[in-house]
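User: Predict the complex.
Assistant: Input components as received:
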Amino acid sequence: MTSDPFSSRCCRVALLGFGTVGSAVARRLAADDTPVRLTHIFDRRAAEKRRSAGLDAVSWTPDIDEVLHADADIVVEAIGGVEPAATWIRAALAAGKSVVTANKQVIARHAAPLLAFAAQQGRQLRFEAAVGGAMPIVRAIGDGLAGDRIVAIDAILNGTTNAVFTAIDATGCSLAAAVRTAQARGYAEADPAADLDGDDARAKLAILCALAFGLRVDPSAIGGISCASTTAADFTRARLRGATIRQVAHADFDRVTATLTAWVAPIEVASTSLFGRTVGPQNAAIITGAHSGEIGIFGAGAGGEATAVAILSDIAAIARDRAAIVPPPVLTANFILQTSDFVPAEVAC
Amino acid sequence: MTSDPFSSRCCRVALLGFGTVGSAVARRLAADDTPVRLTHIFDRRAAEKRRSAGLDAVSWTPDIDEVLHADADIVVEAIGGVEPAATWIRAALAAGKSVVTANKQVIARHAAPLLAFAAQQGRQLRFEAAVGGAMPIVRAIGDGLAGDRIVAIDAILNGTTNAVFTAIDATGCSLAAAVRTAQARGYAEADPAADLDGDDARAKLAILCALAFGLRVDPSAIGGISCASTTAADFTRARLRGATIRQVAHADFDRVTATLTAWVAPIEVASTSLFGRTVGPQNAAIITGAHSGEIGIFGAGAGGEATAVAILSDIAAIARDRAAIVPPPVLTANFILQTSDFVPAEVAC
């Protein structure tokens, strides 16, 4: 309960990657009146980016070792991709720094050993930004609902696909045209395959399965249906039923039979439902708890500003209590996975 | 990231109050396979309640001093009301225990000194259950969105009034009849005035203003309009405009002029909006951040089970890191409050 979530001790932050997310984090740290200070920025094109960024009080470098051995307390990893990001996160922890990352691919694949190593080092690895943009779903599941037994998660986790689907539904345009619009607005990568095929949502869903069910899920084992062949005609047909289509990520876990059902697919949802009303690059999730029933959360799921909010919240949490104990997870791979064959025609979210 | 949020060290819990919330907490602690152990229950009618509860491994007592001086690590306060709850929370902290409370009245009025005392004692005072039932809004605002600058909050914070309003809208019955139904279902107190008049929502809104804006708001200074004179005819008129009526708690803070606008009142909302779709004893909130835009959260807002989820999540957080540093808030009373005169006819939530 504080308007200044940062402790009074100055906390030094080094940033890896000055792309959309990294530059948004840098702007916030430079602008905000906090005791958190951005001291280093690593970027392969440091010299060029420094010229346009105007953050002259910061040490810019294209040399990762220079940043990893600098005197920062916290390293923010905003590079993306599995490698070299995973290696550098481990190196930062080895150098005694806490790490904040937005990297869903690294966390989906390597969270357990990295979190165990962080705990062993007496440091923290936080990743609110890896799932749901500004929507604090990692804390909601890992902390706020720790007192419940979560039984199911349904979520829209990929802002790009949601923006594309919303555009098709609104204008009747082709998927290709909607992708071009999303690219022009900065919501879609040059290659939208990871978004439409579901790789992005699968990685995020695997993270949520670890948080909610304690399962080590290989994201690539999660099946489903790609959104790449969804057409305007599909939306027209859905509309006749009062529905629309969303890329839904679903997971439910039956603890008695140790059976996880998980998939990512384009699914019909009622137009008036939470998911039907989740438009543009937004994310939304319904978490079903055995004791609390359905808890919903929604908000900006993509974009540098939204992701920066999640990263700054994680920085604040570390700055507040740098000696906090975060017990490493105990994940099991001892479960049955039901996937593609279990995709329903519609969900009621 | 763990399926077992509790640390491996056994953590001993004493419970104050064996009413709806307290008994739900006790049942969960007795049933769940966690290293958290319920050791003591204080209740004025301990002997009688023990007979029906069947928790024979626990020490029951009508003597508060016996519990405060027992060897529990955490005291759960589930008595309600300002006194003696506030005195007992302080006494528990003085005795070296951390405290988890569902008490919105105590937190709204005494959070700052109690949290400062907890920090001085090296202990924690947690209160997720004081606002929003199972919906983890205290963490969302205080922690998950710490990296944003929150500018406004709109919320349905009183499950009883929401259940009453939903019933009037669905059946056209009188407010008195809807209150009787809610009482029969366990959603309303014998005297529903605190719910309908807005005292309950005002206390919760004051807590959210402290978390979001760093303001010390006297809940009784928050004005608005009582829901006690809302009629079935009001709902009929609203329906003609595609709307319904909800008890909405609103706060926005202009940091430049240090002006807080805050009120609790029955307000028209679109039937298809989040608030319009929030039915029965549910809660919902839209938090507007300067950087992340609107973040929404909703879920079970009332009832022993939902409140117990929030309390168990707080117990888990303390059990995980009993030495965690929770800096006390710095709240200011130096602001202008705009209230009753600023209630609008409708809100778009």
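Residues 154 and 250 of chain B are 5 Å apart (CA to CA).
Let me know if you want any component modeled separately.
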